[in-house]
Design brief:
440 residues, 77% helix, mainly alpha, 16 helices, single chain
Length: 440
């Protein structure tokens, strides 16, 4: 064995310096993001679990379907503003601060909803909750994409965001046990407890984004964090001293290179969220009107979200192998077919299977569209691109509960509810099909 002639140390046995092994766990960061999305999912889907109770003739407020639909939309209006504002602000103040602040915010708003004395105050509390709920989504996705292995970003984001459906299942199971015994208000107190448990853990363990630190000129901190977690830093564009910030980042979404993708991602996200929130708000009530008792009707809501948990990681892995476009197009088409087939008189078991596939291909598709959006933009634009896609997409989410209420109250019959949700899925498939490919 001979020494390296370029070495200043002539000893052939002197060990060469080795890079320090990462001491931080990427999986822990993804798990914290997932825990946040679980509570996000619970706090949103919890409203769908209490809708049948609020519509009951013996309920304390005696709400109509139209009033119930409007209240369901208030949280989503809040999410629109929360996602758009936070998606931009997080590129200015950092992912960690936004994540912690949003969790504290929506936890407080859930407590206000639990003690609401009137429907109006309840709706206002749901709007406030939406501001925080909308803020955590683009932040959690941006952190997950950054801390995921570069070859498994869609799969990792799918696993992380399946927390939304875990939250939905938790809400459905909790409702089956809690509402008959403690009433609908207890469902919101459960959400408060979940938020209170998460905050101190996230405060202690959640790191900042290395890309954010680098973009803000804090290279030493960024490199230290990258070494700790084994990350590869994504440098700002070489033609600039620093990455675009604030409004300049927003304007960059509309340069010729990105504008078509930006608008199509807004449309695809909006359609996906219309399906997600429309079905999560009204599926239990639709099945109740189809003759199922409350427990069985809530079980359909549980299966909708269980399908997303099982299917999203599988489709995410497929997207990593063959690309996001063919997978998201196919999933939207499968959702349209399954929702349409729910209009037929089929055995209950088969209906549950169709609902599970529909959950994977509505909730799951929206999750993969988020990952597709994140990978479409460079790191310094990622949170802004996601925030605005999710923010504008919230128009679809807001429309979902109102749209479902309109169809349900129209008198067009039970089948019309399924046709009404199958049609937007076809529009989503068309939007994803038209996303342009970017040349590196």
């Amino acid at each position: 064995m001979t020494s390296d002639p370029a070495s200043a140390d002539p000893s052939p046995t002197t060990p060469q310096p080795q890079p320090a092994a990462p001491t931080g766990s990427r999986a822990l960061v993804v798990a914290l993001c997932c825990a946040t999305i679980i509570i996000d999912g619970y706090d949103l889907i919890v409203y769908g679990t209490v809708v049948p109770t609020l519509l009951d003739g013996s309920a304390e407020w005696k709400l109509s379907e139209a009033e119930t639909g409007r209240i369901g939309a208030y949280a989503l209006v809040g999410m629109l503003f929360g996602a758009m504002m936070t998606g931009t602000v997080t590129d200015l103040v950092g992912r960690r601060r936004i994540m912690l602040g949003c969790v504290a915010w929506f936890t407080t708003a859930m407590a206000l909803a639990a003690v609401a004395p009137t429907p109006e105050f309840f709706g206002f509390a749901r709007f406030l909750a939406g501001l925080g709920l909308g803020g955590v989504v683009p932040t959690a996705i941006a952190l997950t994409i950054e801390y995921a292995h570069p070859r498994h970003r869609s799969r990792t984001n799918g696993l992380m965001f399946s927390g939304y459906s875990v939250g939905g299942i938790l809400a459905a199971l909790t409702a089956i046990a809690v509402i008959p015994q403690l009433g609908w208000r207890a469902m919101f107190w459960v959400g408060v407890v979940l938020g209170v448990l998460l905050l101190p853990v996230a405060w202690r363990l959640l790191p900042e984004s290395a890309s954010f630190l680098l973009a803000r000129g804090r290279r030493e901190e960024a490199e230290s964090l990258a070494a700790r977690y084994g990350l590869t830093l994504e440098e700002p564009p070489p033609a600039q001293d620093s990455a675009p910030r604030g409004l300049s980042t927003l304007k960059a979404l509309f340069v010729p290179r990105y504008v078509a993708g930006t608008l199509l991602f807004w449309l695809g996200t909006g359609v996906g969220l219309l399906l997600v929130y429309g079905l999560n708000t009204w599926l239990a009530q639709i099945m109740r009107e189809a003759g199922y008792p409350l427990g069985s009707a809530l079980a359909f809501l549980l299966v909708l979200n269980l399908g997303a948990i099982l299917g999203t990681p599988l489709f995410g892995a497929l997207a990593d192998r063959v690309g996001s476009k063919p997978v998201t197009v196919g999933m939207f088409l499968a959702a349209a077919v399954c929702i349409f087939l729910l209009s037929f008189e089929l055995p209950s078991f088969l209906l549950f299977v169709l609902v599970g596939i529909a959950g994977a291909c509505t909730i799951g598709t929206t999750i993969l569209v988020n990952a597709y959006t994140a990978n479409f933009y460079p790191a310094h634009m990622r949170a802004t691109g996601l925030g605005w896609a999710l923010g504008v997409g919230r128009l679809g989410a807001i429309l979902g509960p109102i749209y479902g209420a309109f169809i349900l109250a129209s008198g067009w019959g039970l089948d019309a509810n399924f046709y009404a949700f199958a049609a937007p899925a076809l529009l989503g498939a068309a939007a994803m099909l038209l996303i342009p490919a970017l040349r590196k």
